[in-house]
Amino acid sequence: MESRNMCMEAWKTLRSTPMLxxxxxxxxxxxxxxRIFNIIHNNPCIxxxxxxxxxxxxxxxx
Length: 62
Hints:
The protein is mainly alpha-helical. The protein has one domain. It contains three helices and no strands. The longest helix is centred in the last third of the chain and has 17 residues. It starts with a helix and ends with a helix.
């Protein structure tokens, strides 16, 4: 339960940043942006929590 709550908090924090839906621009910083994007989106904690995040917010809104 505790790790699920930690993942939920990670999702809430990530959701409030522009990195959640970031598409890296094609400029000199692209390589750095791609690396950050991959670190965030390949995070296993965030991947596991994806379902819980949407499930939680879907049922909280009803």
